[in-house]
Amino acid sequence: MKPQLHKLPVNPDASFIYKELIMEFFPMQWHFHKEFELVLIDKSTGTRFIGDNVNRFEDGDLCLIGPQVPHFYRNDDVFYHQKHTLSAQSIFIHFTEDFLGRDFLLIPEMKQVKILLEKCCYVLEIQGTTKEIIISKLYAMRDETPPQRLVSLLEMLIILSESKELEQLLTFDFSARSNDNTQKITQAIEFILKNFKQKIYVETIAQQLNMSVPAFSRYFKTHTRKTFTDYVTEVRIAHACKLITENQFSISEIGYKSGFDNLSNFYRHFRKIHGLIPKDYRKRFLSNKVD
């Protein structure tokens, strides 16, 4: 079973989709679609799952996701409480490779844009000054006419194609090729998100899904390209990053609150994923915040 194919509504009066979402929390569904997606998290926090990449997202998170790449954004637990004043807000654009015409990207002037779109199968996180420019244009598109929006999207793609501030999130093409039901992989990830702060056993989730452990392990790795244990570890580290940036707990408290039973494991996995120890990660974050 693969990530679910989303068939987006077609507007006969537009060649692409521009939309703003404001809701209590983002829908949690492991999905993909045939369109490219430029997605801005305007207001919200949580954990971002794109292909095999697990990371935090906050206000201003901006990514360009290629066709067929499975993904979803899962809000922090507080968003699912009945009494809260938070909202999950995003702006996104969906477009196909031929939204400007089947041969438009083949003209010489569009060579760099074509290269940009080819890189999207690895997903691009947009950073720095480029991010500020793109966000500003996304906001401006709210009041634009359809022809103006078309020009704005083309301008953004050109800006992105010339930018050096794009970080590739995936190490290989993660495109999904099937529209089979995704209920089990969604259940597995939800199980991880609900239980990662304590000891978690693959036998438990396999039993809940009526699968043998070997069958579940194969299934999970097929759809995430990671073992169940490695995936749990990355979710724990993503949660630890959230706590570190909030700066309310000591590093040792954060390790235990994130599901690690000893600090040496916490430090080892954190360094492996982020290239530095938690203490230095906090220093870097705080210094950047001051700047």
From TrEMBL:
The keyword DNA-binding applies. Keywords: DNA-binding, Transcription, Transcription regulation. Residues 186-284 form the HTH araC/xylS-type domain. SUPFAM superfamilies: Homeodomain-like, RmlC-like cupins. InterPro entries: Homeodomain-like_sf, HTH_AraC, RmlC-like_jellyroll, RmlC_Cupin_sf, Tscrpt_reg_AraC-type_HTH. PANTHER family: ARAC-FAMILY TRANSCRIPTIONAL REGULATOR (PTHR43280), TRANSCRIPTIONAL REGULATOR MTLR (PTHR43280:SF27). This is AraC family transcriptional regulator. It comes from Niabella yanshanensis.
